Amino acid sequence: MDNLSIMNFQVYLPLTSFKSLSVMAGLAPEGSQFDARQFDAKMTELLGTEQQEFFTSYDEVHESFDAMGLQENLLRGIYAYGFEKPSAIQQRGIVPFCKGLDSVIQQAQSGTGKATAFLL
Ligand SMILES: Nc1ncnc2c1ncn2[C@@H]1O[C@H](COP(=O)(O)OP(=O)(O)OP(=O)(O)O)[C@@H](O)[C@H]1O
C-alpha cells in the first residue's frame, strides 16, 4: 500500500468550525480548570469578525521541495539533511502551512513524514 492510498486528505477548517468546539465545551469534566463560558465568549468574539475565506480541500501537490517556494536557507537545510523528495503528505501539507491557513489537519500512517512537515 503506498502513502497515497492510506492518506486521509487534509481539511482546512474555517473559524466557524469552532462552533462545534463550543458545544464540546459543555463536556468539560467536573473539577476541570476549563471555563466553558470564557471559551464561548472568545469564540463569539472570533466569529464576529470577517472570517469568510476557507477551504474544505486543497488540491495543490508539490512534487519537489524546490517547487514549494521555500526560503533558500530552509531549502539548503532540507537537502543538507539528506531529504531529496517530499513524501506524499509533505507534497500536500507544507505549502498550506507556509501560506498561513487557519488550520491544517493531516492524517497518515506512522513514519510518512507528518512531524517533519510540521517542523518545516
Ligand atoms: N522527505 C523525506 N525524505 C527522507 N526522509 C524523510 C522525509 N521526511 C521524513 N523523513 C524521515 O522519515 C522518518 C519519519 O518521519 P516523521 O517522524 O516526520 O513521520 P511521522 O509521520 O510524523 O511519524 P509518526 O506518526 O510515527 O510520528 C524520520 O526519520 C524522518 O527524518
Automatic annotation (TrEMBL):
Coiled coil: none annotated. InterPro entries: P-loop_NTPase, RNA_helicase_DEAD_Q_motif. SUPFAM superfamilies: P-loop containing nucleoside triphosphate hydrolases. It comes from the Eukaryota. PROSITE patterns: Q_MOTIF. Residues 63-91 form the DEAD-box RNA helicase Q domain. Keywords: ATP-binding, Helicase, Hydrolase, Nucleotide-binding, RNA-binding. A motif (Q motif) lies at residues 63-91. Its EC number is 3.6.4.13. It catalyses: ATP + H2O = ADP + phosphate + H(+). Belongs to the DEAD box helicase family. The Q motif is unique to and characteristic of the DEAD box family of RNA helicases and controls ATP binding and hydrolysis. RNA helicase. This is ATP-dependent RNA helicase.
